[in-house]
Structures are given as structure tokens and as C-alpha cells.
Protein: Carbohydrate ABC transporter permease
Organism: Microbacterium profundi
Amino acid sequence: MSTETLVRPVDTKGLPTAVPPRKRGVETTPGAKIRLVIAHICIYLVALIFMAPLIYAFFSALKPNSEMFSMPPTLIGSEVRWSNFVDVFAYGPFATYIANSFIVAVLGTLVTIIVSTTAGYAFGRLRWKGRDAVFVLFLATLMVPAEVLVIPMFQVMQWFDWVNTYQALVLPFAFGAFGTFLMRQFFRGIPYELEEAARIDGAGPIRTFLKIILPLSKSAVAVLTVFTFLSFWNSYLWPLIVTVDYDTLGTLPVGLASFAGLTGTRWDLQMAAAIISMIPTTILVIVLQKHLVKGIAMAGLGGR
């Protein structure tokens, strides 16, 4: 052995101290650098491909309406009209459309989260007779297209006298099976020992759900929040059918269609309105992005 391996560092009091572990070196071979550069180039190219339609839509919103379909196509028009984003609100009740979409999306998301988390807890953690059979029947509703249910749901709304109301826009699609399935799979991945420890301490099913299970499921709830908010925000067919007074209860997708009239289509304003409608959903995804990957990855790990 060499002297270097036998000598240990000594502190000011003469006592030996622990030798700090050596840091593992990062691979810096030429081949690794080339692979890293190629990976970054591929990522940037894919991102550019996905961003290209959005970039073109943004610059199209700044063009005059007469140059929207000019040949050859150009990215920037003869003049940049930032006023298009202001004219959108003067063309129609666009502020009302935004407010209605916010109300419907927020209320629909809240109801969906409450229903999906409680139903997912009942299917995933509680033991009761016929649980799996009921869950299979409940899950089978995912195979039914939403277009098939439009007429029966509209008749139900008529029976309740809910046509042209907020509850008609929110409740019919707030009890879907997707959110319940997502939360059930996530709940089944939580160790049962935590729940048993809570029951030993005297906690019942409701308290265990609120104090133990739900706080551990923030990532799955974030994923469900994003998916549900986007679903309600972008819904077009059902609000178009169940709404009568579009100027009062119209949502953004219905409002975007109003820019196409009998006298022509204001493509410039429609593009500007579409860009504005993407801002809230983009902010929501950015705020919750750190939970999305974790929640999606862990939601499918339950196997009990």
C-alpha cells in the first residue's frame, strides 16, 4: 500500500475525519458530445415542427384580412395590425364568451375532481361486494362516443328545464369514467400500510381519504385538472346544442365560429381570437407542468 492510502485527513483537534467520496466523472468523450449535439438538434427540430402552426397563426392574426390567403403565402403581411386583438372585443361579446368559458371550465373541473377522486377511492381502496364488476360496467362507458349521447342528454336537460343554463353546460360531462379510472389507478399504487396505520389511530374511511390518500395524490389531481379544464374549455358540440342565447351563455369555441358570417369570414379576427383563447390553457399547463409527468407516469403503476 502507498502512504497516500493509509493517511487520513486530520482536523484541527487532531482527530481523523471521514474521507469525502470521490465524484463520478461525467462522460466527456468525443462520441458522447456528438450524440448530445445530435439529440439537441433533433429535439429543437421536433419542437419547431410543433410550434410552426402556432407561429404562423400568431403572425396571421397581425395581417389584414385581405392578405390571409395571398399567393405566394407570406409570414408577415404588408402591415402589422396589433389592433386586431382589440377589434376582437368590438366585433361581438367576446369578453362574455371568455367569462362563460372560465365559469364552465372551472366549475366543471371542480365537480369532476370531487366526483373522480371519491369514486376512484371507492373503486380502488374500499372493499365491497361487486366492486370490480361495477367498475367494468362503469369503464365500458368510455367506449360510447359522446355524439351518441347528445340527444338523450338534451332530452334530460329539457326534463329538468336546464336548457340554456350553466348546469347544463357543466354537469352532463362532469361524471365521466376517465377521471375515475385515472384516480383509481393512482390510489392503488399507494401502500396499504399507510391506510392501515391511519385506521389503527382511529381514522375512518373519510378521514383517511382526506388526510392520507388525497394529499399523496397531488400529481394525479394536477393531471386530471389539466385534462378536464382543456376538455371543458375546448368543448364545442354540446355548448352549441344546449345553448340558445349565445350572446349570454356562449362559450369561446362557439364564439370563434361567430366570426364566419353570411357576408364573409373575418379570418384576421378569428386568428386573433384563437390566440387569445390559448393563453389561459397555456398558463395552466406551465404552472402545473412539474406535476404532469410524475402524475402520468405513476397513474398506471397500480397493480393490486
